[in-house]
Amino acid sequence: MARREDVENSIWSDSDFLSLAGPARLVYVWSFTNPRCNMAGIYQVPRQAILMETGVQRANLDRVLQQLEAGRFLFYDDRVMFVRSRVKYLRSRSNTIARAIGNDLTRLGKHPFVYKWWEENAHHQWITRELDGSYMGYGGPLEGSTGKGKGKGKLETEAFEYWKERCRKPKAKFTDQRVEHVHARLQHYSLEDVKRGIDGAAKNPPRNRETGVVYDDLVSVCRNDDQLERYMERANAKVMPIRSQAAQKSDDYLNDYPPDGAA
């Protein structure tokens, strides 16, 4: 069935796009306008179809695909193609389209590109609000879903296990509050950033000067973006500098948020 696809004319002034060779530009435009491309921008297509429909020479196709992958325009593994910015440029954003995206991802199961798709698109709340939270585990529904947009995914679980080991919390549980805060930080930071914040909690956590309480809980580390960055600084510093009065207060406000389920 024919489907209309719009191409924003600003693409012809995009420096990254213009840096591509002519055949690579053609394949990129083809990647999201060919009839196989779905709402998610991740679909199966044989190499022969790319050759036939774009007219790119067989001897040049590998070089073209490598250039597009290096520029993070798309990814292809001889079976599945993932057009990275497809969702970003969808003309409509509705519950129906979000559900269609969920179906597109489910059809591919646990293909590595599905994980990559979520890493690129999990910040789109219009999608995560509609899809069951289990999709946030990447690669389709997983056990342990906590609700829409807040699933115990692979990255969240890896961060939790890392925190248990580094902060010596062997009996700690992955509570809903911990899941929610870790998941929120992973929308803006990499897993390695979160782990570095955990390193800060293990190495030099904030302490309440009056009670001696140590704030090394995962909720404390991932309370918000600023908080995570403060813990990351603690991990990077060989010797913690003298804290200003304002900075000390920023640590002390953690008193209002006692660790959830601390072991």
Description:
- This protein is 47% helix and 4% strand.
- The model is unreliable at 139-150 and 239-263 (pLDDT under 50).
- The radius of gyration is 22 Å and the shape is elongated.
- The N and C termini lie far apart (57 Å).
- The protein is mainly alpha-helical.
- Helix 8 runs parallel beside helix 10.
- The chain has a 3-stranded antiparallel sheet, with helices on both faces.
- Strand 2 (74-76) and strand 3 form a beta hairpin.
- It has 2 domains: 1-131, no CATH class; 155-256, no CATH class.
What's this, in brief?
The protein has a three-stranded antiparallel sheet with strand order 1-3-2, sandwiched between helices. It has 13 helices and three strands; from the N terminus they run ααβααββααααααααα.
How much helical structure, as a percent, in the residues?
Answer: 40-55%
Query: What form results from the Cα inertia axes?
Result: elongated
Task: Find the count of extended strands (DSSP E, 2+ residues).
Answer: 3
Order of strands, main sheet, comes to 1-3-2
Number of domains: 2
Give the number of helices.
13
The computed structural class is mainly alpha
Radius of gyration: 22 Å
Report the sheet-strand fraction: under 5%
**Average of the residue pLDDT scores:** 81
- Could you give the order of the helices and strands? HHEHHEEHHHHHHHHH
Low-confidence stretches: 139-150, 239-263
Distance between the termini: 57 Å
Major sheet attributes: 3 strands, antiparallel
Entry keywords:
3-stranded antiparallel beta sheet, 2 domains, mainly alpha, 4% strand
